[in-house]
Amino acid sequence: MSFPVIFYKYAKKINSTKIPPYASEPASLFPNVILKDKTNITNPVLIIDNDFINVVTGDPFYMPNYAYIARFKRYYYVTDMEWLDGLWYLSCKVDVLATYKTEIGEQSLYVTRSASESDGSVIDTSYPAEGVPVITNQQEDSPWNLDKDNGYCYVMGIAGKATTYYAFTLAQLEVMLDYIMSDDYVSLLYGSTAWQTAFPEIKAMTNPLQYITSINWYPFEISGTLTSSLKVGWVTVNTVGGQFKEITNFLKSESTVIPVDNKHPQAASRGNYLNNAPYSSYTLLFPGYGEIDLDAAVVSDSTSLLASVLVDVRTGQGTLYVYDDLYILAQITSQIGVEYQIGQITKQGFGTAAMVQSALSAVGGALSGNVGGAIGSATGSLGDYAKSQIPSIKTRGTNGGINNLDSIIALHSEFKLLVAEDNTRKGRPLCEIKTINTLSGFIQVDKADIDISCTSEEQNQIRTYMEGGFYYE
User: Fold this and answer.
1) Where do the H-state alpha helices sit in 235-312?
2) Whether residue 384 has pLDDT greater than 50
């Protein structure tokens, strides 16, 4: 049996559907090629009885590497050529991708990678990251005012009929504390100055700090109703340090907008997945709250963040909320108010209850005019006791600090760069069901369950190529 065969000297990738045109250089048509006995359609051996000549140029056509047999409707690779007894024996192997290009293009399959179309949200694990990341910092001014002359205040809770909170400047606070520790306050408390000569020890027994529930320093101003008097325990103190503020709204809010200008430098060209972990990380440094890890997947889609702190000025606790347009990225509570430590010299030891009772009796005698009784009572029950004790310091609150507030806001971003890619020969992730002929170039398919009329051997070859990656061109 003889039939025509077109031979080519043609360069193509072995896993490509590319087909040579008839006029490909060089090409040669042999009209009477004989098929060797005991051969097959997928791996035929062809017999030719003359030399190969380029039909276009007339030049000798040595070592053809490709062929098309119209009778079999198949393209073939020439795998070997043997000269025997004046004849050429050409061993061939079917090129299933070129032969069934049209049918392959009509298949709708799950494409995992493609060079012509991709989904940038799908993580591509084909490329490792470089060792040194790109680090950037965006900085904003601190929301806290640490200038003692302009901006911050002290909040004091004072017990009277109920606990009332007042906002003072530092100067007003010092005047207030100095006054309630003075002889004038003791005289106001007991309604007379007679104690100063009759019973001076009474000052050591007077503890105005018991009426102060808290004193906190805040790095911002607090609004309130201006007043010049307040009640400390049983008595009202007027005009101490000028006008200060009585607080009625105990929540103070401070907000800062933080632009998100930095995104992964390779994300625009290689996929938005690079803006997510583990390739991108974002950490917010906020004074008073330390370092806060943010969800990179959310931050990468944002143009700015809103950091808002809501402080309860009665307790000093502040809750930081970090938002983007839709989500709360962080909610953290920390101590913003710094406790202000105060102290008073007091007596410590046994018999305190009796001591206090005696002191009150003595004061009562002095205030009623019985100065001798007051002195005698003090000498017998309180005076000797007071003289025998060593003073110690009684304190309220703990020493605080502003060091954790003394910093700027910073959005710290860290991006891990990937090594160079080869999209032409590896493609990018797609992970969608696609009709193959809508794509081009490199394609890789998962489970290439093709529906093509061909031999089982050819079908297995096509599946192997498609699942391993092939070129549709």
Assistant:
1) 267-270, 296-299
2) no
Q: Is the pTM of this model over 0.90?
A: no
Angle 183-190/170-180 helices, nearest 10 degrees?
60
* pLDDT(344) > 90: no
Instruction: Determine how β-strand 27-35 pairs with β-strand 45-48.
Output: antiparallel
- Rg of the Cα atoms in the chain: 46
Amino acid at site 372: G
Sign of CA dihedral 271, 272, 277, 280: positive
At the topology level of CATH, where does 2-96 sit?
Answer: Thrombin, subunit H (2.40.10)
Q: How far is CA 406 from CA 7, 145, 147, 322, 399, in A?
A: 81, 9, 11, 20, 17
Amino acid identity, position 349: G
CB atoms < 10 A from the CB of 179, how many? 16
Distances in whole angstroms, Cα of residue 20 to Cα of each of 8, 66, 92, 424, 464:
8, 9, 17, 21, 23
- Listing DSSP states for 401-435 in one string gives -STTTSS-EEEEEEEPPBPP--HHHH-EEEEEEEE
Contact in structure between 274 and 264 (CB atoms under 8 Å): yes
Q: In what order do the strands lie in the sheet with 317-323?
A: 251-259, 304-312, 317-323, 328-335
For the chain, give every domain's residue range: 2-96, 103-126+421-472
Q: Summarize pLDDT for 4-37 with one digit per residue, the tens.
A: 999 888 899 999 999 988 655 567 788 889 999 8
Please spell the DSSP secondary structure of 31-90, one letter per residue. EEEEEPSS--SSS-EEEE-S--B-TTT--B-----EEEETTTTEEEEEEEEEEETTEEEE
CB 444, CB 432: distance < 8 Å: no
- As a whole number, mean pLDDT of residues 392-405 equals 51
CB burial readout 187-215, b (16+ within 10 A) else e: ebbbebebbeebbebbebbbebbebbebb
Q: Is the dihedral of CA 61, 66, 70, 72 positive or negative?
A: positive
Q: Which of 157, 287, 275 is nearest to 219 (CA)?
A: 287
d(Cα 30, Cα 35) in Å, to the nearest integer? 13
* Average pLDDT, integer, range 161-173: 87
Question: What's the mean pLDDT in 271-281?
Answer: 93
